[in-house]
Amino acid sequence: MNKFFFGRVIKVKGKILTVITKVNYSNVYKKNVLILKKKKVFDLFNQSLYGDYIAYIKCRPIKKTVFYILNKVIEKIKLV
Fold first, then answer.
1. In contact, 7 and 56? CB cutoff 8 Å
2. Whole-model pTM?
3. Are 73 and 52 in contact (CB under 8 A)?
4. Structural domain contains residue 58
5. What secondary structure does DSSP assign to 7-30, as a single string?
6. Which domain holds residue 20?
7. What is the per-residue pLDDT for 79?
8. Which of the 8 DSSP states describes residue 79?
9. Whole-number pLDDT of residue 22
10. How many domains does the structure of the chain reveal?
11. Residue 59 backbone dihedrals phi, psi, to 5 degrees
């Protein structure tokens, strides 16, 4: 069973999405700390756009730096 990761899309280039994830609690400092991580996610059917909140899972390497695949789009952003 694969673990789901969640994040917001900050860059779209072809079928590769750059996703930012947040972790809000640090055990070292015992307080909320904002930690940002960028991951490259493969979007097979071009479902998501900039600003969407998505769920993705870890898989085998698709390209040299792409290790995640898009599972579903949770929240779509309306572009004006």
1. yes
2. 0.80
3. yes
4. yes
5. EEEEEEETTEEEEEEEEEEETTTT
6. 4-75
7. 76
8. P
9. 77
10. 1
11. -145, -170
In the block, tokens 């979007």 appear at 43
Q: Are 62 and 69 in contact (CB under 8 A)?
A: yes
Give the SS3 label for residue 61.
Answer: coil
Pairing mode of beta strands 53-58, 16-26? unpaired
What span, in angstroms and rounded, lies between the C-alpha atoms of 31 and 12?
A: 33
Is residue 66 one of the residues assigned to a domain? yes
Query: What is the distance of C-alpha 31 from the center of its chain?
Result: 24
Encoded tokens for 79: 């572009």
What percent of the chain is predicted at pLDDT more than 90? 45
Higher-pLDDT residue of 1 and 56 is 56
| CA Rg value for the chain | 14
How many Cβ atoms sit within 10 Å of the Cβ of residue 14? 8
- CATH number of 29's domain: 2.40.50.140
The CB-side HSE value for 32 (13 A sphere, CA atoms) comes to 2
